[in-house]
Amino acid sequence: MKKLLYMVVAVLALSSCNNWFDVAPKEEYIDEDALFSSESAFRNALNGIYTELRSSELFGSNLGLGGIEFMGQTLVPDSELKPIAEFDYDSQIMKEKIEQVWASMYHAIYSCNNLLRLFDKNQDVIFIKGAREVMLAELKVLRVAMHYDLVRLFHPAYTSEPSFKGIYWKESTGDELQQLSTQELCTKMLAQLTEAIAILKKYDPIYTGESLNSDGLFGMAPSNRVWKMNYYAALGLKARIALALGTEAGYLDARACVDEILEGGYFSFATSAGTDLAFSREHLLGLPSPKEGLQALGYTLFRDKGVVLSPIVQVEEWKQEAPDDIRFRSMNNTLQNLLPKYDSLSIAVFSGAPQQIPYIKLGEIYLIGAEAALKLNDLSGAYAYLSTFVDKRFSKTSIVETSTATELMEEIERQYIREFLGEGQLFYCYKRWNLSSIPSYDGRNIEMTKAKYVWPIPAN
């Protein structure tokens, strides 16, 4: 019997692997040729990869609210979570989270590679015109996205040490491993993104407006594509990576991606939070939270553990400065925690589903545009992105058209703190900016070093 793709029929016990890359299933399953004989089988397998990504080991907790958010210092941890906020990689909780992220991410990468292999193997399967192309491009973008998140965790910032080698690039289900430098990885990732984006631009329903659904086969209508790595999300990922290069070419590339997303006009800011306190309509890509996912995690942290927002959020000053800022809707009445954002009443209004886990969203696109323009010495352009973003949040800012580069950068950092509360993005910004110290959850400053910024790679 031939091996079946893991994610369709079984959950592999990752912790049982003696080697972190030994992720191929060992059990015997039904014939993969018989199983992958229809388009729906490929779509179901692709959906399984998103299920992996939304797990608590990855974006459902460790790479968001339940883990890396504490490294950004926006939340005051309890004693159990304190080692995360203090970068104690020798602690049991950090060792477990690092191992979970490493193993689970490479397992999801394996799932991408295996499905790509099956696409190549089963050429005779009939697809709706354009559907095969969309899924192939989507898989390649997802693979880039996963590798890049590993780079953001296990490598120093690109601008500080582009020759650093840490993670492995995996592009097949075989045993071969490529340990590339950050520079080599980013070059490869941007090249693959460029190729995949061109295909998505031609076929992705979110861009073309043409549904690829058929009777009984759903998931390829334009409105469904916000749940998948679509054309605009791929552009956003490319902008994120290009910005991190710290080069003029990178800034130009990032800004071009930003402008294309904004000119497309598909996404718009929330004008009223309603019940959607995470502003899901703004997510270029959102992962559906498991039924007991973010809600249960939010209750555990904010209700049971009593976790509160830290002083770096400066919530009282923020409220005085911009009392109508729509982001206050995601906080409780005393502005101490984010429980409303994750409680049972907070749903994605357009679907009635639990809150999405944001992977990349409209606010980041504006902030990438502002930072890229600033680094290109286009202060008026930076002001335009930034002031538009602040206005869309019904907020206020002290920057004006004549603001200096320093003042604009300070506002960008302030907005990163406010915009991504609970989403695990701020730590990556501090790292990308190579800050030698960052404000701590307890009011101090933390002196940052390479050893704190870079997660240690687990031993095999």
UniProtKB/TrEMBL annotation:
Residues 348-439 form the RagB/SusD domain. InterPro entries: SusD_RagB_dom, TPR-like_helical_dom_sf. PROSITE patterns: PROKAR_LIPOPROTEIN (PS51257). It is found in: Cell outer membrane. One of its GO terms (cellular component) is cell outer membrane. Pfam families: SusD_RagB (PF07980). Residues 1-21 form the signal peptide. Keywords: Cell outer membrane, Membrane, Signal. Its main location: membrane. Belongs to the SusD family. This is RagB/SusD family nutrient uptake outer membrane protein.
